[in-house]
């Protein structure tokens, strides 16, 4: 039919050569058929460009309070709120506000006793809220390290779409970096931009020392003091730990994607240096005194300490 319409138009035009008044009606009628067939055969996006440009409606997602392990409840609540905020910045998600979620659960008489951190509890809450996804997990402190464990749960399939672990050094890094990274990873999982097979080309080292507070240098670059978790690219790296009065600790590590390598630097005290004293005079006085090439002043010198 699509190819026949132009032929009909041409044929009618040629037959219409014998009579002008007679030819206009067939041509107009056939042209109308051509336009109708061509227009209706176009996809919906071409017929209505504005409709094609409409963005996909964000999916409703609920965020449960993170379980606090050795973390103050106030900090865990702040981390949950910050994660919800960053999820809302992703075009794919529409997070349910905390107060709205609590009101819906209260209306149906659902009470969360303690932390709703199991997948079963998250799925049950998600069904009540009408959410397509739920986010649950925990935040812990081990030593001086904040550890995040976050799960993205699909309500319909009851499967965990993605589980993310992040270890950082401070509450500031959790709020400003880790929660933002987790939200982006969740969005990439839903949009299909994430590649679960491809390894992450970074790993971490957890540098500890005895005593703590030692200076860390990695590949010649300073990285504050121990204890410290540092994220590094794949490959070999030289870890140097130093502290005044102790021997220098050096270790080379091979970082692999997604690995966490612990480094325990046992610092050995330097041997005590015995010293003595000496009195130095000269005639005439005022002579410069050098010991091992170092200027110690001018004579007379009394009780000058030397190793």
TrEMBL record:
Gene3D superfamilies given in the database record: ABC-type transport auxiliary lipoprotein component
Pfam families according to UniProt: CsgG, PEGA
InterPro entries registered for this protein in UniProt: Curli_assmbl/transp-comp_CsgG (IPR005534), PEGA (IPR013229)
Domain PEGA: 203-267, 276-303
Annotated region (Disordered), positions in chain: 1-20
GO cellular component: outer membrane-bounded periplasmic space
Stated name of the protein: PEGA domain-containing protein
Coiled coil start-end: none
